[in-house]
């Protein structure tokens, strides 16, 4: 065959013939190479991958996994002191954790990226599926297959009723059972279970709502703590907080205007048994004011005081011994309740008493005093071998004091913990024997300072304090609604079954009407034959079996998937 003939045959075969060419590979490379995606093609491919259900589940799993470090590692947004203590105790891990942003997980770049991708993925999944669902709701149930006896659930009988009468009765019955039904030719087609897909969509929409609520809450939240002694109060202004943190979009002028006073704290504890010391009553009685209206309330654990958009939670409790400090001339330089911080469940407490102004030594020189305090509400007794409290209630209060004098360094410009003494410029008092001055005191007792430096008295009055958290979380209600909707949607998508029922009624060769009923579910279910049997029994009221016909047979068990597809 000549080269010319070959070329003519290739032209006749068109593009397919060109690929049969015996030309060298180099010349055919451009012919057999596949098409390239290009920029638009790659963007479409990435969007399809991102909006697939598989990727959405992977991102949801990654988000859950990413929250683990935030639960196990102290977070700067929650407690800076714990973060600093963790850094001091783990010098090797700290640089790695800082690079990975493990101390600020929820505001980190990688957590935000997962969060945003999941948000976009869910929206990309929901929008097209919602349009498909709307289309399904507007469409009609499909017509009956030619061979109903091949479906998983099937029953048949003969009746003397007219075919039209049977179809009309079947249509009424199915609509009464909340099926979407219509007559198509010689059969009635019905479908039910659309709430399954609605539940699925509701679940995904609820996830988006929860993500929005979480972001809203993080951006516009405010949260602060305040320790209040009985008889003292609090006004919801920034300067009144012991600590305060807020979202990046929160404005100080958005603080709810209110104030409250701690009237009393009531705490009772289990006295016997394995739960000895467990709180039984733990509540704070307060008087609060908002907009000029004075009210009273009781705040308990998990029962906060709600004032507008703010909630006041009771989170801790302790004791504040009342002390009086006098100088060498007998002048009172300090008198008040000193809150001490608990260090165990029995409220063994430590703290510092600081006299910063008004004190002068025996020579008239200005000086500052500091006392390290250790307080137990229930003392074990002298010679018991322990100074730790034996019970949380105020049964046998004892306070141990160690005195110092000098410069407290409160005016150095550096932040200082009010519950700790900076002893770098302080000297400890010494007794007449040259030993460090320390004394264990009962209520009403006084410790005299050496060399006419004055005295400190542990008054018989021991007040209680309560610590409160005042927070504004604008997204909490939305998050709760999303969580409830997600549970409801997931329940519907798991337990509601989409199924179809067909009822065919035709006149047989002998003139007797033959009724066939069949059902098909989107997934196998033992309840489908039961439901079909129940419908068949109900239909026999209007289409009773012919006298010479056998009773209505039960619906068949679901056939294997291979047979159902024949």
From TrEMBL:
One cellular component term from this protein's GO annotations in UniProt: membrane
UniProt topology in membrane? Multi-pass membrane protein
Q: Tell me the compartments it is located in.
A: Membrane
Q: Where is this chain compositionally biased, Pro residues type?
A: 544-557
Q: Does the keyword Zinc apply?
A: no
Read off the InterPro entries from this record.
Cyt_c_bgen_Ccs1/CcsB/ResB, ResB-like_domain
Question: Where does the record place the ResB-like domain?
Answer: 53-532
Q: Which UniProt keywords apply?
A: Cytochrome c-type biogenesis, Membrane, Transmembrane, Transmembrane helix
Note the Pfam families from the entry: ResB
Asked if the record carries the keyword Membrane, the reply is yes
Skewed-composition ranges (Polar residues): 1-12
Transmembrane segments in this chain: where? 55-73, 109-131, 201-220, 477-496
Disordered: annotated span:
1-21, 538-566
Protein name (Swiss-Prot/TrEMBL):
Ccs1 or ResB-related putative cytochrome C-type biogenesis protein
The organism of origin for this protein = Streptomyces venezuelae (strain ATCC 10712 / CBS 650.69 / DSM 40230 / JCM 4526 / NBRC 13096 / PD 04745)
